[in-house]
């Protein structure tokens, strides 16, 4: 296990380097001058040139990238071009808001998805099964920004049950979490149903039933544990998707998270903040998938992670 974890951490290095190179090139090749944005549209060329020199924007791209990577290795993510403050001070408070939103949405997705998938598999082709799969199809089809706007219209504006914007209180958290977690719950429900149906048809399940084992024990103790491996894989991938989906959700509900900061920074050509946000999201995504791979060993002792 230790050897596997060390190997995966070492594999993380080229992945993150590739992410930094790609984002760095995309931001610098995009039309627009951040120094001009900082100085203003009517600023004299001398002021713009002074800002470019101060930010190092006149240096060759390889030099700028090398300086950025050296700073990251030393724990320095740079200085925001827009706010003129350390990037870490801008990203850190918003990062935890986004992580909190993604975690709540993941928990909701797992809870609803597992329950719906198990019921659907146990009652295959029944009215409950068909109804759950239809609802799951709608959940997959609806864009989360549209769902967020509809929930806001119904429950905040029409009924007045929940505040339409903000983050912090349980009332403010509920609608964004439902918005972000609905699609994930639909995917997990469909995957759980498929995996459960495959496991239920195995010989050892039929043997357990022939021995008179209670159906509840068969489903939750024997079948579900073996059906969870593909579901856990989906959950890991979904967490990364939720981090990306948080961008739109935060915009809809005016949540001051990292996704909203990322959009604002892209619009204002704030290179260091954009690079820091994407780098942090990439690290979180890779770490979550590492934890998912490690969990396979606990779900099925026969799996050898070193293969």
TrEMBL record:
Q: Which UniProt keywords apply?
A: Cell membrane, Membrane, Transmembrane, Transmembrane helix, Transport
Xref: InterPro entries: BPD_transp_1_N, MetI-like, MetI-like_sf
Task: Indicate the segments forming the ABC transmembrane type-1 domain, all copies.
Answer: 95-292
Its subcellular locations are: Cell membrane
Q: Does the keyword Lyase apply?
A: no
Q: Does the keyword Transport apply?
A: yes
Enumerate the transmembrane spans.
12-30, 101-122, 134-153, 173-192, 227-248, 273-292
The protein's predominant localisation is membrane
Q: At the top level of its lineage, which domain of life is listed?
A: Bacteria
Q: What membrane topology does the UniProt entry give?
A: Multi-pass membrane protein
> Which family does the similarity line name?
Belongs to the binding-protein-dependent transport system permease family.
Q: What is this protein called?
A: Peptide/nickel transport system permease protein
